[in-house]
Amino acid sequence: MIDRVEIYVKGGDGGNGVVGFRREKFVPYGGPDGGNGGAGGSAYLVGDGNISTLLGFRYKKQFRVERGSPGKGKNMHGKRGADLFIKVPLGTQVRRKKEEGGEELIADVLEHGQQVLVAKGGRGGFGNAHFATSTNQAPRNAENGKPGEERWLVLDLKLLADVGLVGYPNAGKSTLLSAVSKARPKIADYPFTTTEPVLGVVGMNYQSFVLADIPGIIEGAHQGRGLGLDFLRHIERTKVLIQLVDGSSADPLSDLRKVEAELEAYEPTLKDRPRIVAINKIDLPEVRSRLPQLEMEFKAFESPVYFISAATGEGVEELMMKTMEVLSQAGGAVLEKKEESGFKVFRPRPLSPQKGARRG
Ligand SMILES: Nc1nc2c(ncn2[C@@H]2O[C@H](COP(=O)(O)OP(=O)(O)OP(=O)(O)O)[C@@H](O)[C@H]2O)c(=O)[nH]1
Ligand SMILES: [Mg+2]
C-alpha cells in the first residue's frame, strides 16, 4: 500500500529593489530613497490527519509561491509574498530529487500540523538607498530580487497501521486480512508464510482503518527464534492489537500467553496497548465442539474475546465493528471523505464503557 507522486514546487522570487531619489520642493539633491523588494513566499508541506491519500495531487502537481513586490520610492519596501502551505497525509515521506540524480530524504511527516520547508522564497533585492555610502551618496544601482528555490519532490505515502494483527504462525492472520480488505497476502498451511508485513485498508460505514498482518511469533522470538521480532517495529505505532489464536491448536490459551510474553519482551509498553482476542477456525468441528471450554478458559482474559472463522467469515464483521469501536476510543479512527462531503458524522457513544474494552 504505497502511493507515490512527484511534484514541482517553486518558492516565490524576491521583488526587485528600485532606484529612486527624493524629490521635494526646496530640497535640491534629495538623497536616494529606492526601497528594497519584498521576499518571496516559501512553500511548506503540512501534515494533515484528515486526508489519507495522495489523490489530491493527481491533477495539481505544480506549486508556485507568490513573489515579493518590488520596492518603491520614498524608502518603501515591497510586500512579502504569502507563504504556501500544501497539505499531505500523515505517513508521507518527502524526498528531493537531486540534480546529479538520485533522491535525498528530507522529512517524514508523521504529525498533524507538522511543517516542512520545501522551497524557500528568494530574498528581495536592495533598493539604491541601501547602497548609499559617504563616498557614493547618489548610487544609481539597485539589486534584483533573488529567485525562489526550485524543487522536484517525490512524495511516498507509507500507510501507518492503526491496528496490528499478531499471533502464532498459521493462526490465520493473512486469511483474516484478506477477508476484510483488498490486500491479498499469501496464505498457506505451513508456518511463516508471511515474511514481510502486509497492510490492508478495512472500510466500514464512513470509516476506515489500516490493518497490518505481520509474520507469526513463536516462543523465544525475542532471542531470534522463528523470524525474530524485528518486524514488530511496523506495529509499534498501532493503537490497537488483535491477538489471533488458532482454536484448533493443542492449547490456545497458552499460545496467546506466549505471544503476549514475546510482545512484552520486545517492547514493555505494548502490554498496555488495547487489544482484542479473536479465536479462529470455529468452522472446524473439533473447534466448535470445544467452544464452551474455550469460552470458560478465556474468561480470565480482560480483553474482549471473539470467536470467528476467517475462512467462512463467521463472526468477522462483529470483530471488525468492535475493533473500530476500540480504535475510536483510543483516538485512532479515520473519518473518510470528511473534506469532500463537508459533513460531520456524529456517532453515538456507548452510555457506559464496554466491559473489557480498555481505553487507550
Ligand atoms: N478451517 C479453517 N482454516 C483456516 C482459517 N483461517 C485460516 N485457515 C488456514 O490456516 C492456514 C494458515 O493460514 P494463514 O492465513 O496463512 O495463517 P498466518 O497466521 O498468516 O500464518 P503465518 O503467515 O505463517 O504466520 C491456511 O491453511 C488457512 O487456509 C479458518 O477460519 N478456518
Ligand atoms: Mg500469514
What does this structure look like?
Helices cover 15% and strands 24% of the residues. A hairpin with a 2-residue loop joins strand 10 and strand 11. The protein starts with a strand and ends in a 19-residue tail after the last helix. The protein is rod-shaped. It is built from six helices and 15 strands. It is α/β, with parallel strands linked by helices and 360 residues long. The C terminus is likely disordered. Strands 9, 10, 11, 12, 13, 14 and 15 form a seven-stranded mixed beta sheet that branches. Bound molecules: guanosine-5'-triphosphate (GTP) and magnesium ion. The site of guanosine-5'-triphosphate has 24 residues, from helix 1.
* Classification by helices and strands: alpha/beta
Report the C-alpha radius of gyration, rounded.
Answer: 30 Å
Write down the overall geometry. Answer: rod-shaped
> Could you estimate the helical fraction of the residues in percent?
10-25%
Low-confidence stretches: 335-350, 353-360
Task: Tell me the strand percentage band.
Answer: 15-25%
Q: Catalogue the ligands.
A: guanosine-5'-triphosphate, magnesium ion
Helix count, per DSSP? 6
Count all strands and give the number. 15
N-to-C series of helices and strands:
EEEEEEEEEHEEEHEHHEHEH
Span between N and C termini? 26 Å
- The pLDDT mean sits at 87
Query: Biggest sheet, in brief?
Result: 7 strands, mixed
